[in-house]
């Protein structure tokens, strides 16, 4: 790796994802060993160079010699362009830059519901909340979860009645609506954080089913085995839901309603099929 000298990357120390990639940048030699610091511990002589709130929303890369600051996807383009110069024209190609800015923003503004922080420091700067990106995240995860579960439902035939092509989408969307009503009544200030976390759990659970679906392409799997795998994933999702609601300080109510909704749906599936 070609080390980008005299540069400092500022990251969110409360964000596990941010901490991980910042550490990777120094461990791989893309930046020198002193090339990362959290914006919470930003050096005083750097503060005057950096838009602090923007650095919270987008990774900031500071040239410590010139004072030049890059943010977000531009920081990553600078780092990777230094490593692979042949990609520099791509990193200045307008449509590609526009698309990558949107992808970066999609991840950045949802990073704390993708991997939630174990704790936050009271009074510290927090990422800006963008409702449009949270709604987009909910729609994206809803679609992927519905798509995967629609395919997985065929593996459960014989034990669980097979529904129409839209059933899993309706079930997943229904849970967002159901839990959304509960959280809006119970803790409206945490509505979007909770729904984002809930859909991350569903998304992760759906991804865990993909290996079973892939294996089923090559090996005939009994519906009982597939159901056991599904229940195992559901159990992991249940535990993760408990963990995340504790981090959000939401108590047990939403976990109870999360389970109740799923049991009601299962009863309705058997009743009307």
UniProtKB/TrEMBL annotation:
**Which keywords are on file for this protein?**
Membrane, Transmembrane, Transmembrane helix
Among InterPro entries, the record links this protein to:
DCC1-like
Membrane spanning stretches: 135-156, 168-187, 194-214, 220-239, 251-270
Superkingdom in the source lineage: Bacteria
Pfam (any one)? DCC1-like
**Sample GO molecular function, one term:** protein-disulfide reductase activity
Asked whether the keyword GTP-binding is assigned, the reply is: no
Protein name per UniProt: DUF393 domain-containing protein
Q: Which organism is it from?
A: Mucilaginibacter galii
């Amino acid at each position: 790796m070609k080390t980008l000298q005299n540069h400092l990357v500022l990251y969110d120390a409360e964000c596990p994802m941010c901490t991980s990639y910042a550490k990777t940048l120094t461990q791989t030699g893309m930046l020198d060993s002193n090339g990362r610091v959290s914006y919470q511990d930003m050096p005083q002589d750097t503060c005057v160079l950096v838009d602090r709130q923007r650095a919270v929303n987008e990774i900031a890369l500071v040239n410590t010699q010139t004072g030049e600051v890059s943010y977000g996807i531009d920081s990553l383009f600078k780092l990777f362009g230094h490593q692979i110069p042949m990609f520099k024209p791509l990193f200045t190609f307008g449509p590609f830059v526009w698309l990558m800015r949107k992808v970066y923003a999609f991840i950045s503004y949802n990073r704390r519901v993708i991997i939630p922080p174990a704790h936050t420091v009271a009074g510290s700067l927090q990422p800006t909340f963008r409702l449009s990106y949270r709604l987009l995240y909910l729609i994206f995860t809803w679609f992927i979860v519905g798509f995967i579960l629609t395919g997985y439902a065929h593996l459960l035939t014989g034990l669980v009645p097979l529904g129409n092509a839209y059933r899993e989408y309706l079930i997943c969307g229904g849970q967002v609506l159901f839990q959304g009503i509960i959280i809006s009544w119970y803790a409206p200030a945490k509505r979007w954080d909770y729904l984002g976390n809930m859909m991350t759990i569903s998304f992760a659970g759906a991804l865990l089913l993909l290996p079973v679906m892939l294996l089923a392409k090559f090996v005939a799997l009994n519906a009982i085995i597939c159901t056991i795998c599904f229940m195992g994933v559901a159990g992991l999702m249940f535990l993760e839901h408990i963990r995340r609601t504790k981090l959000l300080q939401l108590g047990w109510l939403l976990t109870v309603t999360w389970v109740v909704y799923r049991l009601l749906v299962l009863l309705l599936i058997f009743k009307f099929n």
